[in-house]
Amino acid sequence: MPEDHLNNETSLSAELTETGVKAAANSRAIAAIDRLMGNVADLGNAWIEGVTTRMRARSEGERLIIEAAARYGIERIGQDQAFAERAFGNHFRRVVSQQLNKDAVVAEALRDLRDQPPNEVEAISGPGSLSEEFLGRFESYSADASTEQLRERWGRILASEIRTPGNFSSKVMRIVDELDADTAALFERCVAYRSERVLVKPLLGDFSVLDRIALVSAGLLADPGIGGQSVTFAEQVLDGVECWVRRFGDIAIAVRKDVDFPRYAELALNGDRTPRCPVYILTDAGFALSSILTSREDDVGVEFALHLQSMMSSDGLSLWKRKYRDQDLFVKIPMPNANQKRRLSRAFRHHPQCSGPV
Fold first, then answer.
1. What band does 77 get if pLDDT is binned at 50, 70 and 90?
2. How many CA atoms lie within 13 A of 153 on its CB side?
3. What is the edge-to-edge ordering of all strands in the sheet holding 229-232?
4. Which three-class secondary structure state does DSSP give residue 119?
5. Half-sphere exposure (CA, 13 Å, Cβ side) for 48?
6. pTM
7. What is the Cα Rg of the chain in Å?
8. Treating both helix axes as pointing N-terminal to C-terminal, what angle do 170-177 and 132-143 enclose, rounded to 10 degrees?
9. What is the Cα–Cα distance from 151 to 304, expressed in whole angstroms?
10. How confident is the model at residue 356 (pLDDT cuts 50, 70, 90)?
């Protein structure tokens, strides 16, 4: 490998490390960039911000390449200049466009990694490079990312794979590639109410049968069938009281076992009286795609607690929060008051999706 390439690679590695991308994740990022761009020269912040400028300035470079190639083509294939210009013009225009698309996808990935660097576990876990299967398919999809939305989507997928390799298989990427804009927007709205691999059905609001069919057909939701899908509450003793408990990220909702659950369709009871919450289950592709969007599991837990509180006595319902992220220890926290309820309600109605569109 040439010395200047090594120097550029070392420089980029140092810059990525400064933004929190280090160890194995750093190596994965370097390998992916090298594969998609051919080299890692000048890939600092200035390069990222300059992608748009280069896209606007490409026309003159295309023209010079096309003219030179056309002159060569006339000699090689014995055709007139107009034919050669069309043939070579179409080819080089496609090549230049595809490379600029890949450049823009890499820029989005680096922005995403800069904003959300891998955590300590992600940084040291996994291989030092992404799989050839992933990179081969990803390169093809990113080369065709001709809109800002597609570049952002594939850039975040690359960043996600750098953090935790293996989420985006060939099948998952094919499903993502086939998503139309309306289905992507619908999925983004629904994922605001995700907890682990499920969407909490009582919180989805105006989610029609046609919406469900669209997401099932797109390969993002498992078909719920006639009986539907649900997750159960677990038995647990909290502060010496036997409770039914359901966790949402670092939030846990607890209902005392001596309190009757409301008898309504949104919170049915199993034959053994174990309460269960109706949900929609994400497919592998849906779960992988949800990983590139901001997780709001804690907020979903609070919102569902408020939903239950409106239908049952509040003295039997309590809210708990994990005290330490790496320990299974929960502490009781107050239920939101009236003002906090209104703020939370507004936040969910006007969910901003901080991470941008799918």
1. low
2. 28
3. 194-195, 198-200, 276-281, 229-232
4. coil
5. 17
6. 0.73
7. 25
8. 10
9. 34
10. very low
| Per-residue CA distances from 252 to 34, 148, 235, 236, 345 (Å) | 44, 38, 12, 11, 19
* Region 215-238 average pLDDT: 91
| Beta strand 276-281 pairing with 198-200 | antiparallel
Tell me the two tokens of residue 262: 């409301």
pLDDT in tens, 251-299: 999 988 887 766 554 555 555 667 888 899 999 999 999 988 888 899 9
Buried b (16+ CB within 10 A) or exposed e, 131-147: eeebbebbeebbbebee
With beta carbons less than 8 A apart as the criterion, state whether 188 and 357 touch. yes
**3-class SS letters over 218-245:** CCCECCCCCCCEEEECEEEEECCEEEEE
CB 288 within 8 A of CB 281: no
Residue 124 — φ and ψ, nearest 5°?
Answer: -100, -10
3-state secondary structure (DSSP) of residue 321: strand
251-256, strands of its sheet edge to edge: 234-238, 241-248, 251-256, 317-322, 330-333
Select from 286, 278, 294 the least CA-distant residue to 215. Answer: 286
The pair of three-digit structure tokens given for residue 209, joined into one six-digit string: 């049968």
List the beta bridge partners of residue 195.
198
Provide CB contacts within 8 A for 99, sequence distance 6+: 37, 143
- Where does the chain have alpha helices with state H? 3-18, 23-37, 45-49, 51-56, 58-77, 81-115, 120-124, 132-143, 148-163, 170-177, 181-191, 209-217, 284-290, 297-309, 338-349
pLDDT digits (tens, 9 = 90+) for 146-174: 888 999 999 999 999 988 888 899 999 99
